[in-house]
Design goal:
By secondary structure, this protein is an alpha/beta fold. Helix content is 48%, strand content 13%. The protein has 3 domains: 115 residues, Glucose Oxidase, domain 1; 126 residues, Enzyme I, Chain A, domain 2 (Orthogonal Bundle); 310 residues, TIM Barrel (Alpha-Beta Barrel). The structure holds phosphoenolpyruvate (PEP) and magnesium ion.
Length: 578
């Protein structure tokens, strides 16, 4: 029967496929017992066999860049799946306790979690995530309709789950997942950012999806509007096809803008940079005429692997980025691990009481000088191949910038003495994403070559609203008057000192906000290449002079509704490409 679930669109694209439901880590199953113990044991063993075959099949199909990263997960999961303690424990629970296989999984998971939680080593403690994934796979296999097509792999299916970690997303795409629907999450989370970068349709905040969608149901997912239709009818299928056609048409129209300047109606050129992490992003940024890379998040090099990348591995990644942009500037952000960007190497402290305000970003780099110097050396070496800027995340005080620059200068000096080719000067900029940095900017702008507004975090810290908390999703808005006033102030400070100022948070990639940012005095925007042409189109339909004249009205707006009304009063965006 047709059902419709509302969610939030987090990564555009339309997908039609069967659902693969993955239950949350802590299995929500009630205590139940069975009479026929032997049949229940068979049921469990069949499910384990299915999972083993699935994982084996997946391992065989992996190739290319994902093979190593994803292969590591799979090998570990295969080991866990064969672990006698896990398997015997499950058998014993069914045999002795007469529990259902589902409940035995829950008991066994909690028992193992108890052991892991007591471990001192944060890396080992974090292994419980892997146990959860393996138990989740077995649980899903217990409930799979064996007659359904698609069993044996997730390729071509739509994953429905509670949450997906950023590192897992690339793995899922490598497995051929068409789209992801999560019950929690936020369009501004790192998972969402990565989904857009991978062009993987994602709907977040689809509460109730786990109750209302069964494994094998057919879903029509629209990652733009956030609508999920279960068992779509003829009209839905027509709509899906129309959406695909519309997306293709829009892409064609937008493609005409590839070689056009990002120029307002009154002739002001806006610098559009790309936020790029993958090789594909870099190629796309280049092809779309991005000014350069405005944000390269180096933590993505650290997220997927249990080993910290060494200088050589980092150098190669940064050098290839520089080479990929053929002479256009690339902005490499130093490590911003922490909070929701937890790595698998144990570098980030576990169980911080308040990780968003904890040892993250530049604080972590400065607390680990050897690690930081390794990264600085790798970046400095890459600067021998083309123009590089260094961007420092989570800056909250002048001292941090001063120390970073001193370390960078020392590293550059050492490399020069060793005969390495490095740039004469590497501009140093700060992410303005902590309100203290925004407010105190006049006191330390002299120590910076450029600034980049990280609106994702700035909104979170300024409004005291967790960017990943879906219960507060409505409150998390860059259209709060406090946010706009602060953006305006930062832009004025930077411009008055002749320092370039850009926005590299998700706000910059939303064409709707382009007139607003231009009005506030921001003339550089950095976004995922997937949205660059839409933003270019919006700029080409904007008149800077008129927008600036309307800033006083914008600053008088007393609430979000007033700001939205201001935005709506802007001239409709002209097509600009035809
Ligand atoms: C930001 O905070 O706006 C930003 C660009 O950084 P990240 O999203 O990686 O925290
Ligand atoms: Mg940030």
């Amino acid at each position: 029967m047709r059902r419709e679930l509302p969610g939030q669109g987090a990564s555009r694209g339309s997908a039609l496929g069967r659902a693969r439901v993955r239950l949350p880590h802590v299995l929500d199953v009630v205590e139940e017992r069975v009479e026929d113990v032997a049949a229940e044991l068979d049921r469990l063993h069949d499910a384990i066999r299915i999972v083993r075959a699935e994982m084996h099949g997946l391992r065989q199909r992996l190739h290319g860049a994902l093979a190593q990263e994803v292969g590591e997960f799979l090998d570990l999961h295969a080991l866990l799946l064969d672990d006698p303690e896990l398997l015997h424990g499950l058998d014993d629970l069914i045999r002795d306790g007469h529990y259902t296989a589902d409940y035995a999984l829950r008991l066994q998971r909690n028992r193992i979690a108890g052991v892991f939680e007591g471990m001192d080593d944060p890396y080992l403690r974090s292994r419980i995530d892997d146990i959860d994934q393996v138990i989740g796979r077995i649980h899903a296999a217990l409930h799979r309709d064996l007659g359904a097509p698609g069993v044996g792999g997730i390729a071509g299916e739509i994953l429905v789950t509670d949450n997906v970690a950023p590192a897992e997303l690339a793995q899922l795409q490598g497995q051929g997942v068409m789209a992801v629907v999560t019950t929690t999450g936020n369009p501004l989370s790192h998972t969402a950012i990565l989904a857009r970068s991978l062009h993987l349709p994602l709907v977040v905040g689809a509460t109730g999806a786990l109750q209302k969608i069964n494994d094998g149901d057919v879903l029509a997912v629209d990652g733009g509007s956030g609508r999920v239709v279960v068992e779509p009818g003829a009209a839905d299928l027509r709509e899906h096809r129309a959406r695909l056609r519309e997306l293709a048409r829009e892409r064609k129209q937008l493609r005409r803008l590839r070689r056009e300047p990002s120029r307002t109606l009154d002739g002001m050129d806006v610098k559009l940079w790309a936020n790029a992490e993958s090789r594909e992003d870099v190629a796309e940024a280049h092809a779309l005429g991005a000014a350069g890379v405005g944000l390269y998040r180096t933590e993505f090099l650290f997220l997927g692997s249990r080993e910290l990348p060494d200088e050589e591995a980092q150098f190669r990644a940064y050098r290839d980025l520089v080479l990929g942009m053929t002479g256009r500037t690339v902005t490499i952000r130093t490590l911003d691990l922490g909070a929701d960007k937890a790595d698998r190497s144990g570098l980030v402290l576990e169980n911080e009481p308040n990780p968003a305000m904890g040892l993250r970003g530049v604080r972590l780099s400065l607390a680990r000088p050897a690690l930081f110097d390794t990264q600085l050396r790798a970046i400095a070496r890459a600067s021998g191949y083309g123009p590089v800027r260094l961007l420092v995340p989570m800056v909250s005080a002048r001292e941090e910038v001063v120390v970073v620059r001193a370390r960078l200068d020392r590293v550059l000096g050492e490399l020069r003495s060793a005969g390495q080719e490095v740039a004469e000067h590497i501009p140093v900029g700060a992410m303005i994403e902590v309100p203290a940095a925004a407010i105190a900017l006049p006191a330390f702008i002299d120590a910076l070559d450029f600034v980049s507004l990280g609106t994702n975090d700035l909104v979170q810290y300024l409004l005291a609203v967790d960017r990943n908390n879906d219960a507060l999703a409505d409150m998390y808005s860059p259209l709060h008057p406090a946010v706009l006033r602060l953006l305006y102030k930062v832009a004025r400070t930077a411009r008055a000192r002749g320092k370039p100022v850009s926005v590299c948070g998700e706000m910059a990639g939303d064409a709707l906000f382009a007139p607003l940012l231009l009005a506030l005095g921001i003339e550089e925007l950095s976004m995922h290449p997937g949205t660059l042409l839409e933003v270019r189109r919006a700029i080409r339909g904007s008149h800077l002079g008129e927008l600036r004249a309307r800033v006083p009205a914008l600053m008088r707006a007393r609430d979000r509704a007033g700001i939205e009304a201001w935005l709506q009063r802007q001239a409709p965006v002209a097509p600009g490409g035809d």
